[in-house]
Automatic annotation (TrEMBL):
Keyword Cell membrane: no
UniProt-recorded name of the protein: GNAT superfamily N-acetyltransferase
GO molecular function terms noted in the UniProt entry: acyltransferase activity, transferring groups other than amino-acyl groups
Keywords, sorted A to Z: Transferase
Domain N-acetyltransferase positions: 1-143
Species this chain originates from: Roseateles oligotrophus
Length: 145
């Protein structure tokens, strides 16, 4: 019996499907450790005349809403749509039994907006990206079980 042949691949040489497989394997392993995952995608979007105006998506799991992305079309910013979008997706999460929500941003002014909406900064990394601080914010609606 011959020895298996091994080869290191790097960067673009690693097939995209294998990158997805790696991510999924890490997530699955973590969920197996935590046990009882109830992960479910969550999304909310606003359309105007059939065009996407604003949207947010992420997932809920272990009674927590994780907001991955929140976006408002550039020509519609400054009108309160981002805050309304966040309230909409929070309402969905509350209906699912979530007790808190976690969100991140690289923009100081967005972190301040979230703080005005009841979020507390629980961590930040200065120069996460040169010139930007990564803010991790948490909003609690109820105590954890």
């Amino acid at each position: 019996m011959s020895e298996p042949t091994r080869a290191w691949l790097r960067d673009a040489a690693v097939p995209a499907a294998d990158l997805v497989a790696i991510r999924e394997a890490v997530v699955l392993h973590g969920r197996q450790q935590a046990q009882g995952s109830d992960e479910q995608a969550i999304a909310c979007a606003l359309y105007e005349d059939g065009r996407l105006l604003a949207g947010a998506y992420g997932h809920t799991e272990f009674q927590r809403l994780y907001v991955s992305y929140l976006w408002v079309r550039e020509d519609s910013r400054g009108q309160g749509l981002g805050g309304e979008l966040l309230r909409q997706i929070e309402a969905q999460a509350l209906a699912r039994g979530c007790v808190d929500v976690l969100i991140e941003t690289l923009l100081d002014e967005v972190a301040e907006l979230y703080e005005h909406m009841g979020y507390a900064c629980i961590a930040h990394v200065h120069d996460f990206v040169p010139g930007f601080t990564r803010h991790t914010l948490l909003k609690c609606w109820a105590a954890r079980d």
